[in-house]
Amino acid sequence: MKCDRGGKFANGELQRFGNIELSPSAGVLNYGQGLFEGLKAYRKEDGNILLFRPEENALRMRMGAERMCMPAPTVEQFVEAVKATVLANKRWIPPTGKGSLYIRPLLMGTGAVLGLAPAPEYTFLIYVSPVGNYFKEGVAPISLVVEHELHRATPGGTGGVKTIGNYAAVLKAQSVAKAQGYSDVLYLDCVHKKYLEEVSSCNVFVAKGNVISTPAIKGTILPGITRKSIIDVARGQGFQVEERLVAVDELLEADEVFCTGTAVVISPVGSITYRGTRVPYVEGGFGPVAQQLYSTLTRLQMGLIEDKMSWTVELR
Ligand code: PMP
Q1: pLDDT for 287-299, tens place per residue?
Q2: pTM of the predicted structure, to 2 decimals
Q3: What is the CATH number of the domain that holds 257?
Q4: How many CB atoms lie within 10 A of CB 40?
Q5: Which of 23, 35, 184, 202 has the fewest CB atoms within 10 Å, i.e. is most exposed?
Q6: What's the chain's Rg over C-alpha atoms?
């Protein structure tokens, strides 16, 4: 889908997956003017397909586009394009419980710019790929390391939108952590260097007794759609959920820590290392809180329980 100079996208068309042509001076290549989204399609037991809250991804892309000085497809255009792409690729969607189809919408400045400025033209495209588990541990606990020098976002920056540069900012810390045997990095705020932010590609929750806490959305962390859904599910199940500043010291007292995101769904955290001290949580499996929430969310996404919130969109 391309956008004209009036900022409106014309409806697009399906094309075979392949390379795209780009000017060397495209805005996205030179000034990082790009946004992406991630969502999944699941196969129901009756063979139909379920999307999970696609309009939330459309709204988040529109919010990001505003920050990045880009026009964006309407919510309806976005959702219709996702549906058409998924239906055209439905043979790639694994059976219920065996994985999903990951959907990657991408919005970028493809017009040429030399001096720093928003690009004069934009492209919106979607590609898909069947996926299994995100971490090599599968749904087994992951190990995180707290990063206290490198930051992924600054107040007033772009950490709260899903722009490509945020991911460039985490590559260094994530590669070092992986080389040291950790699954991923847990970032701290860059002002006080003591409040939890998020992991490279997922949000973080800390459970203690009946209280589940998660860093509040304040512009430096991504407002995850799984995060938002888990907050509602947990409240519905009687947990007290607090969105607030969560100090790194609270990790020492927590019963369970888990991460949420489209790719990771819910990943239990087995241990967190902070300034050389390893804090262990659940060994080998899920803690009871993460297990309960994982079970509800995944059954909802696969159509195995009633969708009382109307979060899923069914395609056949
Ligand atoms: N934080 C970051 C930095 C992410 O990349 C993602 C993945 N989109 C998330 C959190 C989780 O967001 P969501 O639940 O919408 O996938």
Answers
A1: 999 999 999 999 9
A2: 0.95
A3: 3.20.10.10
A4: 21
A5: 23
A6: 20
Domain contains 306: no
Closest C-alpha residue for ligand 1 atom 3:
201
Residue 52 inside a domain? The answer is: yes
ipTM of the complex: 0.99
C-alpha to C-alpha distance for 200 and 187, rounded to whole angstroms: 8
Ligand 1 center–CA 5 separation, angstroms: 31
Query: What domain range is 16 assigned to?
Result: 2-131
Final residue of a domain: which of 102, 131, 160?
131
| Stretch 75-90: mean pLDDT | 95
Q: Is the CB of 225 under 6 A from ligand 1?
A: yes
Last residue of a domain, one of 84, 107, 131: 131
CB 53 less than 6 A from any atom of ligand 1: no
Look at the chain and report how many structural domains it folds into.
2
74's CB contacts (< 8 A; 6+ apart) are 9, 58
Q: Is the CB of 202 under 6 A from ligand 1?
A: yes
Choosing from 162, 194, 208, 228, the catalytic residue is 162
In a domain, 308, yes or no: no
Is the distance from CB of 201 to CB of 263 less than 8 angstroms? yes
